[in-house]
Amino acid sequence: MLHLQQQQQHQYHQQLQQNKQQLQQQHQHPQKLQQHKRQHKQQQNIQQQQQQQQQEQQQQQQEQQGQQEQQQQEQQGQQEQQEQQERQQQEQQEQQEQQQMVLQQQQQQQQQQQQQQHLLTAFQIV
Taking the model in full, what pTM does it have? Predict the structure, then answer.
């Protein structure tokens, strides 16, 4: 991008110089019309070059915009994935908590059963 701008500035200066030369020549030699035509053609060439460069710049800008849009979309996708992962993590945590509760309940039941068995064996001994 910077490189293109520098080139354009360079061409702009060239054009200014040519304009000065033209003015000087018109004042000094009115008969040098041929040269004037030649310079006019040079000017047209420069203008064409500038137009080409501008088009190239526009293309580059469009490409950059396209890339930026793609990146934004990718970022959005990543954000959505992160959100999904967070939701999944929360769900997993909830499931784990539930499982822990179930385990605790099972342990309590086992303890109760063991106590009952102890009582039964105690009765049987008696």
Answer: 0.38
User: Is 43 within 8 Å of 14 (Cβ atoms)?
Assistant: no
Question: Amino acid letter at 35?
Answer: Q
Written as six digits, the tokens of 112 are 């109760």
Indicate the domain borders of the chain.
2-69
pLDDT of residue 97: 95
CA-wise closest residue to 91 among 80, 101, 99: 99
Structure tokens at 60: 């580059």
Q: Please state, in angstroms and rounded to a whole number, the distance separating the CA atoms of residues 22 and 46.
A: 15
Q: List, for residues 111-121, the tens digit of each pLDDT value.
A: 988 888 887 77
Amino acid, single-letter form, for residue 102: V
Q: What is the 8-class DSSP label of residue 118?
A: H
Tell me how far apart the alpha carbons of residues 101 and 99 are, in angstroms, rounded to a whole number: 5
| Cα gap 46→12, rounded to integer Å | 9
Which distant-in-sequence residues (6+ apart) come within 8 Å of 46 by Cβ? 11, 14, 15, 18
